Amino acid sequence: MTEPLVGIKGLVKYFPIPRGVRIWHERETVHAVNGVDLTIERGEFLALVGESGSGKTTLAGCIAGFVKPTAGAIRFDGKPLIEVQGTNGTGRVIQHASHRQMATSIQMVFQDPSSALNPRQRIGDTLTEPLLVHGLMSRVEAKKRVGDLLELTGIRPSMWSRYPHELNSGQRQRVVIARALTVNPVLLIADEPVSKLDVSMQGQILNLLLDLHRQLGLTILFITHDLSVVRQVADRVIVMYLGRVMEACSADAFFSSPRHPYSEALVASTPRVRAQPERGIHIKGEIPSPIHPPPGCPFSTRCPEVIAACEQVVPPLHEVAPNQLVACIRR
Amino acid sequence: MSELLTVADLSVDFIIDGTAVPALDRVTFSVGRGERLGLVGESGSGKSTTARAILGLIQPPGQVTRGVVVFDGVDLRQAGDDSLNNIRGKRIALIPQDASLALNPVLRVGEQMDEILARHFRLSARERRHKCAEALRRMGLGDPERVMNAYSSQLSGGMKQRVGIAMALVCDPELLIADDPTSAVDVTIQAQILYEFRALTDRLGLAVLFISHDLRVVSTLCSRIVVLYAGQVAEVGTVEDLLEHPHHPYTSALLKCSPNVALRVNPLPMVPGASPDSLQALPGCRFEPRCPRSLARCAVEAPALSGNGQRAACWNPLT
Amino acid sequence: MAETLLARPIAPPTVTSERSRLERALHDRLLLLTGGVIALYVLVGLIGPLIAPQGPYTSHPGLNFHAPDGQFLLGTDKEGRDVLSRLLYGTRFTLIGAFGVMAIAALLGFIYGLVTAYVGGWFDSLSMRLFDVILSFPPLVLAIVLVATFGPGLYSVIIGVGLGYLPAIARIIRSEAMVQRNQQYVAAAEGLGFSSVRIIFKHIMPNTTSQIIVQASMNLPYAIIDIAGLSFLGFGIQPPTPDWGGMLAEGQRDLLFAPWLAIAPAAAITLLVLAWNVFGARLRRAVDPKRY
Question: Do B193 and B207 belong together in one domain?
Fold first, then answer.
């Protein structure tokens, strides 16, 4: 069996909150990622799903290199990428590859197309710059390569000399994706790439990502909170809640029979055309603060099936069906 | 005339650099008593502008150039400041899109709610406090005293949104204008709030103008829908009519493009181009450049709403 | 590629980015006009002595405090020197002084602000505390200290006043730059492996030029006046060297009965400052792709 493209073990990320004036208070931390093991297989389209406070963006930031983990290890393409020795947050961080070196392997596409492009740079320059910086080719060759990319991503050549504000958000998002592709990444991380787009334009970007996935064999990590979008694109789904993984399984398994109570609630809460509103109500309450996560299962404060044991022990991820992992002691 | 709110021919222009940019163009619809009407549109459709125009909150460089807004027999455009202030906040209330922005960070929640009541009613401080607590309790906040004593920064996103709705309800209005009130909260919280909102408005018999970009949410909550595109009404009708047999190509496109958690569609439908965000005064139908059914006439002459019950502004509607 | 609901192509919106920024600049008449005025000043600075009717130090005894007339177009001062000639000679000193200060304050402040915003950490904290110290002194006092160290003269004054203005400008640029640094295009550039130098100067800097133009415009008149003040106190340009600020300060004394002594340099300063500010504003417009 080939090693997965990305292997994450025991990943933890805590953000310390500055105390400011209140120096007599205890140091508080945001437990953004609270112990995550997961893998990303080569060539798969993986959806990472969660609401606010789930830690999905922080996790992606750790993989992409923007965020230094507090503990845990990440392996990429068969080699260690970053590991933190020691588990109490004061371990030594060994970074095996710098940000710059990883640039050609992992690329990230962000949520907001309007701030993701330099407002003072023309589209053509934005797209040729990565090629020139990495010294991969001359200006003339770069222009040709970008021309191919434009065709691949459906950007019209007339946009070459335009500024970002002259494009609509769908076109801007395409440029952002094209820019990420200039360096031939192996893994593309897309963080809520369609959340800020009109519904009538979401299809453009989603179809583009699917095409890139198929034609280039691109591995895609798709981060979102919207399960209806996940249904359209993902091969596999991982659900996170308050910094931990709740469920990991194939998309088919997930949508036909989600196992974790939180997954069920998520599916039921997803708006659909003319649904009965009562359908969505499986859980009450609010998402707890990541500064003070509940002991035991993070979902215990809202779970309709909670028992005493749930509040004491963090349920481990275990296999309930082939390739379906759930972190729940009742399932 | 049982309609609580009637909007007819409402047009709003924004004067930019000397030219008039139309933001709303002859928008027409009505909300019956106790009815929930959904106003659906994407970016640039003019839905927030519509809400503000109804409440008379359009400021320069925007101006209402024509049209009539009648609330319970009162012409809001002609009304004097006194009657307007008597209606705004008291009989028509606005639920803001993002409560975190609408709540004053330096005032406690209770103080802000109290201010609204004091503005509109002659009640003792204790009576006001009681009403505020009632409104918060109705919105599912079990410990209203604690919420009223808190500052908005101490509340979670979901709680703030509930406070936003409670503030709109505190004066027992007849009409609620909800400007995309759940887009800023997580999906599990959204489901709860929408459920409670529907139950509450049913129980109180409130009329609601529910503005959203999400057709799915609107179809669950409302009985009738108005579809807005680029400042014009594309179609209006009951939820059943619009979902089962949309007449306007844009309505049909919206339906097809809304991703469905129950079904994978491959490839996903989309509408090329984009909603015009810098509108020029186009003579014809604004959807024409993107419409698969456009005729020569569409670019030249803007269609008016036509039909019975279910009405669409289209020269070549679907049947 | 993907099945769509539409078969026809969409016409792209008409755009105005076809012209380069230089073209836009050259088409702006006000920009050209004020640019021309500034160029004129520079020209006079260069050839002033050649076109002055008299020497700047030549005094005409018995003709002091003479009102403007055919021989002395702007009158004479208390020593009987031709005001016009002094004005023309003094152009270079004033320009060197004012632009010198702007070069130090705005240019260095710009770069400092950009770098410290991006680098952050202890360097940034240390810089801000250092700025706090500098800012607690009035710029003139600081300049006096520096001049006392380096000796009087135009260049000491320029450095002194320039360093006095630098922290305020650097701070403002720093806040702009920090806003930009948090934008996603900077994160994207980092993710693409761009060097810090490239990100600071090729990505963040162009998005802060608007601010620096504003700062440079706004501070020019203060620079002129501060240099004048220092000269007046004896720290900068020593009389009888003609310098507009100095002439203005002296002229204020005799305002009531020889107003031309103050009006002439004041007008020269005002026109320069006006042209400079309008030039700056139009330049910002030409350079910013969104505002055209």
Answer: yes
Task: Let me know whether B202 and B264 are in one domain.
Answer: yes
Cβ–Cβ of C184/A154 closer than 8 Å? no
Interchain proximity A271–B190, CB inside 8 Å: yes
Is A87 part of the contact surface with chain C (CB cutoff 8 Å)?
A: no
Per the CB < 8 A criterion, the answer to whether A199 and B257 are in contact is yes
CATH of the domain at B48: 3.40.50.300
Looking at the predicted structure, is the pLDDT value of residue C73 above 70? yes
Q: Residue A322: which domain range?
A: 6-41+55-98+228-326
Q: Does C13 touch chain A (CB under 8 A)?
A: yes
d(C-alpha C71, C-alpha C111), whole Å: 49
If one counts the domains in chain B, the total is 2
Burial of A256 (0-12, 13-18, 19+ CB in 10 A): exposed
In terms of CA atoms, which chain A residue is nearest residue C189? A130
Q: To the nearest whole angstrom, how far is the Cα of A226 from the nearest Cα of chain C? A: 22
Residue B273 predicted with pLDDT over 70: yes
- Total number of domains constituting chain A: 1
How many other β-carbons are positioned within 10 Å of the β-carbon of residue A85?
Answer: 11
**A209-262 confidence digits (pLDDT tens):** 999 999 999 999 999 999 999 999 999 999 999 999 999 999 999 999 999 999
Asked whether the beta carbons of residue B270 and residue A277 sit closer than 8 angstroms, the reply is: no
Domain that holds residue B129: 99-172
Residue B66 has pLDDT above 70, yes or no: yes
Q: pLDDT tens across B109-128, in order?
A: 999 999 888 888 888 889 98
Summarize the confidence of residues C204-219 as an average pLDDT.
Answer: 84
**Contacting residues of A for B271, CB less than 8 Å apart:** 200-201, 203
Burial B77-108 (b: 16+ CB within 10 A, else e): bebeeeebeebbbbbbbbbbbbbbebbeeeeb
- What are the pLDDT digits (tens) for C107-148? 999 999 999 999 988 999 999 999 999 888 887 788 788 778
Contact residues on chain B for C290, CB-CB shorter than 8 A: none
Please say which residue of B111, B145, B172 terminates a domain: B172
- How many alpha carbons fall within 13 Å on the CB side of residue B80? 1
| Whether B157 and B206 share a structural domain | no
Structure tokens at B155: 């509340």
Cβ atoms of B299 and B284 closer than 8 Å: yes
Confirm whether B137 is domain-assigned. yes
> The pTM is what?
0.85
Of B157, B216, B275, the CB nearest to A272: B216
Q: Tell the CATH superfamily of the C42-49+76-291 domain.
A: MetI-like (1.10.3720.10)
Confirm if B163 and B99 have CB atoms less than 8 A apart: yes
Question: Considering chain C, what is the average pLDDT of its residues?
Answer: 81
Please give the pLDDT value at position C235. 75
Q: What is the pLDDT of residue C9?
A: 38
The interface predicted TM-score (ipTM) is 0.86
